[in-house]
Amino acid sequence: MGKLVILRGNSGSGKTSAAKLLQKKFGPNTMRISHDMIRMEILHTWSKEGIEKSEPLMIELLKYGRAHSEITVLEGILPAEPYHRLFAAAKEEFGENIFAYYYDLSFEETLRRHSTKPNREDFGEEDMRRWWLEKDFLPDIKETVLTAEWSLEDAVEKIFRDVTG
Question: Up-side HSE of residue 95: CA atoms within 13 Å toward CB?
Answer without folding.
Answer: 3
